[in-house]
Amino acid sequence: MFSSAAAVAALPAMTSASSTQHFDPVSRAFHWLTAIVIVAAFILGPEHFGRLMRDGLDPATRWDIVWHESLGVSVFVLTLLRLVWVALRPAAPRFDMNPWMQRAARMLQDVLWLLMLLLPITALLALGSEGHPLTLLGGLRVDQMPFIANSPLAEAADWGEVHGFLGDAILWLAGAHAAAAIYHHVVLKDGVLKSMLLPGRDAH
């Protein structure tokens, strides 16, 4: 279900304030771990998941589904932890850039944060509203989600379609985010990309 929640969804707060040239180690670890988990979830996302389930497939018999859903839950947990850390962390780097770039960066960042929360939520809504189980690593399984199935939300939308649409959106936006970071590094040479790399291992 978390299939299109793809690729390199990097979310550094590039325009927050500090004189340091790098984000703190915890922020960098969260950033790259989240990116890796999302890419893995995208690669393992099964095609035609809803149809397979309606045809009677037990998702526990498909390792890709189990990993995909487990990674999707991990993305949600990581995003919540990152939001807590953003509120507590040391000041982040500040870069001189045009006001419109600052606004665009902030808007893109906020949308990506929102999508990283909504994608797992819409996946759970899709599973619960259609009566499909949630299967996770370690044999963990939730067969019924009556709090979703019996709520007005269950009929409010085709949550599988919503999840797919949001997944496509985060894929394109993450690509735009990565392209912008490369532009800052290659053209503007302002240290934005380097700020999320390990000190002493800057991109060249």
Output the keywords.
transport; 58% helix; 204 residues; mainly alpha; two-stranded antiparallel ribbon; single chain; 2 strands; transmembrane; disordered N terminus; 6 helices
Polypeptide structure, described:
It is a multi-pass membrane protein. The chain crosses the membrane at residues 29-45, 66-88, 108-127. The chain is mostly helical and 204 residues long. It has one domain (25-196). 58% of the residues lie in helices and 2% in strands. It contains six helices and two strands. The protein has helices at 25-44, 49-54, 63-88, 99-130, 146-149, 159-188, and strands at 134-135, 141-142. Strands 1-2 form a two-stranded antiparallel ribbon. The longest helix is centred in the middle third of the chain and has 32 residues, at 99-130. It is elongated, with a radius of gyration of 19 Å. 35% of the residues are buried.
